[in-house]
Amino acid sequence: MALSKSELRDVLAGISGILVTPYDDQGEIAPAKLKPILDRALQAGVHFPVVNGNTGEFYALTTDEAITMAKSVAEMLDGRAPLLAGIGRGVRDACALAKASADAGAEALMIHQPPDPFVAPRGVVDYIKRIADASGGLPMMLYLRNDAIGTKAIADLCAIEGVAGVKWATPNAMKLSEAINACDPDIVWVGGLAETWAPAFYAVGARGFTSGLINVWPERSMAIHAALEAGDYAKARHLIAEMRAFEDVRAEEMNGTNVTGVKSALQLQGNDCGATRPPSAWPLTDAQHQKLKSFMRDNGLLG
User: Fold this and answer.
1) Which residues of 225-260 are buried (b: 16+ CB within 10 A; e: fewer)?
2) Most exposed residue of 16, 74, 122, 202, measured as fewest CB within 10 angstroms of its CB?
């Protein structure tokens, strides 16, 4: 059952947990491997699992694989939490994935910003409207990775019926503040650069944040969220500093080890979700692996 826009706004103010996509030894998707990871995240209190996000290697999946992941995660959730399904690629694939995700039971959609080299802001408006129609009107969170489109274009996107939130994933808090002031005050602006940037985004009006850490250490993500909601920025910064080594590993090689770091950490915990697919880097270098292993050991996270 779809969430209303107001219900989605409440959920978006929590943690959007971006799930990995597990593979088997032959490199085929293996959704069942996700169950213990998902169960732990829900037990910790993660508000909103997200399938087919970038930590889920969305652009490395075929559309059929993305549809299978949406169906599988919805079945694993079994109503325990609302599901946000990532949607993107060419408009026809995006519409097919939106319809399949809605049919599977997703309560809302996260619309990836089109990476096409010839994107017109007004064309994106039409793109989002078509996706909304294909889904039967599910509420949507826009995933904004490029703020160069300008504040007016962002406002036009936020004015589309059904848009309830924006995942802000550019390291520009001042532009975020400008966008917040230019748009409907009911839009929820979600920190889209995970825990590290959450305090800066909260300071200018964002609420909630997305997280890949929830696959590995959901309890820490929840503690950071609680501190920010309480306005305790000093505590939030301290908690973030303690997990900074994890994010540092993920940020190496032009962020090409982002998912590699998460899947390597899961392997160290005994939850082998397979290698990442090219063009992501795999495996970690020896230096990266040792840095990650030290982080996991120091925080009691090894399997």
Assistant:
1) bebbeeeeeeebbebbeebebbbbbbebeeebbbbb
2) 122
Pairwise CA distance, residues 145 & 193, whole Å: 10
> Does the residue 285 lie in any domain?
yes
Does the predicted model carry a pTM greater than 0.85?
yes
SS3 218: helix
Q: Bridge-partner residues for 109, per DSSP?
A: 85, 140
- Is 215 found in the same domain as 256? no
β-strand partners of 29? 23
Task: Give the structural domain span for 172.
Answer: 5-230
Neighbouring residues of 212: CB distance < 8 A, sequence distance ≥ 6: 18, 20, 55, 194, 250, 258, 259, 262
285 and 152 belong to one structural domain? no
Hey, which residues does 23 pair with through a beta bridge?
29
